[in-house]
UniProtKB/TrEMBL annotation:
Keyword Zinc included in the entry's annotation: yes
Organism, as annotated: Phanerochaete sordida
GO MF annotation, one: zinc ion binding
Gene3D superfamilies linked: Zinc/RING finger domain, C3HC4 (zinc finger)
Region (Disordered) location: 32-56, 207-333
Compositionally biased spans, kind Basic and acidic residues: 223-237
Protein known as: RING-type domain-containing protein
Length: 333
């Protein structure tokens, strides 16, 4: 019985201690809330929750700044690499110009330009006249008559071991060895021509920086039929005495041929053709008289056409377009 009473006392003491602890815990929670939250009507500091929210916002801002920094670093690296490549290309061009054979490279550019001008091309919207399929580069064949067909249809035109092909449009006989594959569209051909022109201009500009008198006397890249003012205004030298002077007829033929070869010069000096065609009379001493120099006053009033090298980019492009258009018209005929 005594043991039971002691157990009950212990339980009662434990209950009292539990109640006291519960009360102390409640007071502690209230004190913590009073510390973190200001009392109504009084100004206090920010709460823990507000501080935590502010810290999270700052962390997000730092992360965004770090991402922006990484993007800027990548962009700077790309710009540096681009600048380095550009400097390397300039140094390579300079080294090629100083070390390599400039004349050989210019000849190669001229051959490339010649091949591009003579190469057949497609307008982009042409169809095969046989199967009516759209013509594609590297799958089309151009005949010597400038008519273009797709490769399968061209192969069917001459089956077996025949050596020639008959054009379905103009009925002209064309050897198989003369068939040519069309590799360019008109736009691609134009881009390739512009690329050649840029390379030539780059080399010509570098040659101009080094320039010598011999290089200045060389022919222009494109002969536009004009003669220098020095050659047009320079009087003809007197011919030496001869017992049998050349016949006048031959000289007249040579003059006509020269005028036909350079129509721009003939048109720039009015009356020159009539003066040159008049047979020259012999002097009393047996010397061949030279024609009087043509007055240059009329040539000053004539419009001055700049050479191809001195023309602006728009004029050069228009001349190349005219050449391409004339070739396309010739191929259409």
């Amino acid at each position: 019985m005594k043991t039971l009473r002691s157990l009950k006392r212990d339980v009662t003491d434990l209950q009292k201690k539990n109640a006291q602890l519960q009360e102390d815990l409640t007071h502690a929670l209230e004190a913590a809330e009073n510390v973190s939250q200001p009392k109504p009507g009084k100004r206090g500091g920010p709460s823990v929750k507000q501080l935590q929210t502010k810290v999270d916002g700052l962390r997000k801002q730092v992360a965004e700044l770090e991402r922006s920094r990484q993007r800027d670093k990548r962009k700077i690296s790309q710009l540096r690499a681009k600048e380095i490549r550009k400097d390397a290309e300039e140094l390579q061009d300079q080294a090629d110009f100083e070390v390599g054979d400039t004349a050989h490279k210019m000849r190669k550019l001229l051959r490339r330009f010649h091949d591009l001008m003579l190469a057949p091309s497609l307008e982009g919207d042409e169809d095969c006249k046989i199967c009516f399929d759209k013509l594609e580069p590297r799958n089309s064949i151009s005949l010597t008559c400038e008519h273009v067909f797709c490769k399968p249809c061209t192969q069917k035109l001459a089956p077996g071991y025949e050596d020639s092909v008959r054009c379905p449009e103009c009925r002209r006989e064309v050897l198989k060895d003369d068939l040519e594959t069309v590799d360019y569209l008109a736009s691609d051909q134009w881009d390739a021509l512009l690329d050649v022109a840029k390379q030539w201009a780059k080399m010509d500009r570098r040659r101009g920086e080094i320039g010598t008198s011999d290089e200045e006397q060389q022919e222009e890249f494109i002969d536009d039929g004009r003669e220098t003012s020095e050659s047009s205004s320079k009087p003809e030298p007197e011919q030496a005495e001869s017992s049998s002077p050349p016949p006048v007829v031959g000289k007249r033929r040579l003059t006509r041929r020269t005028l036909e070869r350079s129509p721009s010069v003939a048109s720039s000096v009015p009356g020159e053709e009539e003066v040159r065609q008049v047979p020259e009379a012999d002097d009393a001493d047996g010397r061949i008289s030279t024609p009087p120099p043509v007055e240059s006053s009329g040539s000053q009033d004539a419009p001055h056409t700049p050479s191809y090298a001195a023309s602006p980019v728009s004029v050069k492009r228009r001349r190349l377009e005219q050449l391409a258009e004339s070739r396309n018209k010739k191929r259409r005929v």
